[in-house]
Amino acid sequence: MGNAPIPGSKEDTLVQDLHSVFIAVGILTAGLSMLIFAAGSRTFALQIPTRPLTGLAFGTLLFSLGGLYGLERGWPAHTLAWVAMIVYTVLVTVVVHLTGGPMSPTVALYLLLVVGAAFLLGQKGAVGVGLVSAIGYGVVLLLLYWGVIDLVPIWGLSIDATSLGGLLLVNWVTLCVPMMVTSMLAGAVTERLHRSNRELRESERLRQNLTDMLVHDLRNPITSLLGVLDLLGMMLGDHLTETQQQLLSNARHSGHMLITMVSEMLDVSKMEAGKLQLTLEPVHLPTLLQESAAAVAGLAQLEELTLRVEADPQIPAVMCDRQLIGRVVANLLSNAIKHTSEGGVITLRLERRPVEAVISVEDTGSGIPPEFLGRIFEKFTQAEKDARAHRGTGLGLTFCKMAVEAHGGRIWVESELGKGSTFSFALPA
Q: CB-based burial of residue 96 (10 Å sphere; 0-12 exposed, 13-18 middle, 19+ buried)?
């Protein structure tokens, strides 16, 4: 078995495209087989050799299945792509002859071949397959003109091909010119697409490397600093002035904010890569909401806000990841506190609906401008105008969205300027 291609590499992209081509050809072959049987029926009664065409369709299907097997076994994708395109070109040429030659409607398959070759092999490959197709079709027309093979009277018309030299030449030119132009244009477009795709993948790789660096290189020293600050607080707490204690508290708070930012970046990165595993368990949501509210009660009191929890304790448990959903609620509560002025009210509410449980965080803050509502959950989007709200990475709501959707739920926001916002998310019950 060959070595597996590196994910995101040019070889990996070719393998994926070739896999799609083999499947598409298999589906197309099945469809053409049904058309062959329909064409030979009494309804259409076209004079085509159904047995040879059925055999060709079966052979094409087997070849496509063999190609899929080769990809699974790790055969060289580039070589396999060239072999597939040449074999398909030969098969299409035979089909064109058996369905009427210059009168055949299947000549359009040549255009599909060059487009497929463009995606697999680039511009040079598309032009190469176009030339092979032009030569193959030209050979068929020459053999018809020389009388070596007979013209299949698909439409029931008896035509002497040996007397149609000029028309056959015109037929060949009218097919080959558009086919070669298509091959060059499709090849150029697909090469640009592949180049852009590689650049995007490289940018994503660099971003991922930067995230990994931030997570692994920043978390440990920040944790060490927090440990030192805690130790200083325990050792010197009674000997520090009120100003020094406030400075120490601010330093600890800033350190915890940094840890939160790093954790958000790590979690979002894991979710995007599909590596974050959910630990599902029955969770009593009213209890979870009370715990979340208690965790931020001190901050709400400091900001002179009223925090209320409305949750019926009789609501049954819901299967979810307790830690993740707890962090979602904590993020939404923290956002509400940051965006609500003194004297405001924040309401944490739980509703049980027939097929879902809905948790809402409602505030009486300044609201969100309408132009931000459509992208409030996107990465690095911050819609604050209040200077004190500019805290964080802009990943908190992105994390909330991805965590809720990982549970099969949904999240949304309703807001009105000057009246506040309500962030809600639903979990399947």
A: buried
